Amino acid sequence: MSQPAIEIENLTKTYRSGLRRNPVFAVRNLSLTVRQGTISAFVGPNGAGKTTTIHSLLGLLNPDSGRLKVFGGPAGTAAARARIGYQSEIFHPYPFYTVAQALRYYGQLAGVPADTLARAVPAQLERLGISEAGNRRTSGLSKGMTQRLGLAQALLHEPELLILDEPTSGLDPEGRRLVLEIIREEKAKGKTVFLSSHILADVERVCDEVVMIRRGEVAFADQISSFGAANQDWAIEVLGFTSAVRESLEPDLRLLSLEGEVAVLLCDSSGKRELLRKLVELPVEIGAIQRHRGSSLEDAYMKHVGRA
Questions:
Q1: Could you report the per-residue pLDDT of 76-92, keeping only the tens digit for each?
Q2: Alpha-carbon span 132 to 157, nearest angstrom
Q3: What is the DSSP letter of 59?
Q4: Torsion angle of alpha carbons 142, 144, 147, 153, nearest 10°?
Q5: Does residue 231 surpass a pLDDT of 60?
Q6: Quick one: which of 224, 220, 230 has its CA closest to 303?
Q7: What is the pLDDT of residue 30?
Q8: CA-based angle 91:97:99, to the nearest 5?
Q9: What is the pTM of this model?
Q10: 177-180 long-range contacts, Cβ below 8 Å, gap at least 24?
């Protein structure tokens, strides 16, 4: 089994607030693991602790306690950062550089050799659809163009791990689609992506798993494949569902919900005909019959972190 790309164990970080300088927990005993070669989403409401966690991973913050690893080694070291491409939520390039100059500058900071940089800069500008803006000063870029430049600099040194904080924020539909395609391409190359986003539709489209954080703690985690897809089950509404009816249908009864004498029963496709035959023979009224759709990612978000 390969070493996880990210391991966080019992991360805690507090800040001081108010006149009394009372401690406020930004992150409290947070633990998570990101497997190599996956796209993992890190979601939660504003102030939940996502950026604090990311900055701790990058070594920009010193946690109060806990252990953080990147590819098995300690997080925050120069060696760990060299393997990471990071796009911040608010990306501010130097305003006096052109787009191409800014990208070359970031490549130099990342230690990319000059000959490699000469090829990589135009390639990334082309990939992000900003080649025509290469000679424009970054101060004149729109929010969407600036976001694309931020992703380009994160990709420039071919990192093994991409940490992206709201990468599609401020993008038009075409830009969002392009960025999501690039994220998929990076996964296809064997790269790992740790993605923070408020746009749940984007998370559902590209991510393999999701971790939801609430008040600095992990509130929920699951595979994206478990959400939303219609399955082989059917939901059958039954009116007049009494205890006697229930006994007649047991032991194979699968009850989805019950309110008074209105029940919703579940059955798979192979058992649908037999269940309907039994119901027709009972003193009940059959209501709606439809495919049962699993809960959506939005449902899970609202249930676990939506009222944070």
A1: 999 999 999 999 988 89
A2: 22
A3: T
A4: -80
A5: no
A6: 220
A7: 95
A8: 65
A9: 0.79
A10: 178/128, 178/129, 178/148, 179/147, 179/148, 179/151, 180/205, 180/206
